[in-house]
Write a structure and sequence with these properties.
Helix content is 65%, strand content 0%. It is mainly alpha-helical.
Length: 71
């Protein structure tokens, strides 16, 4: 688990870039003193949380990820 301070740093970084390059993960992991895999996992979970929240606020996503186009 991350400390409150670590989560704040991760969140600030996430707000700057939701899918940063590998070098960014490496630098964050070193700064936080945790393995890179934990940083990547946190970002993946945070993206999933955002996706779920955006689906919920837009009425459920509209049927399996279709673009809404009728073919």
């Amino acid at each position: 688990h991350f400390t409150k301070e670590q989560v704040e740093i991760l969140q600030t970084s996430y707000n700057s870039s939701k899918n940063p390059p590998q070098t960014h993960y490496d630098a964050l992991a070193q700064k936080l003193g945790v393995p890179v895999s934990k940083v990547k996992t946190w970002f993946a979970a945070r993206r999933t949380k955002d996706k779920k929240n955006s689906m919920a606020s837009s009425g459920g996503g509209g049927g399996g990820g279709s673009s809404g186009r009728v073919v």
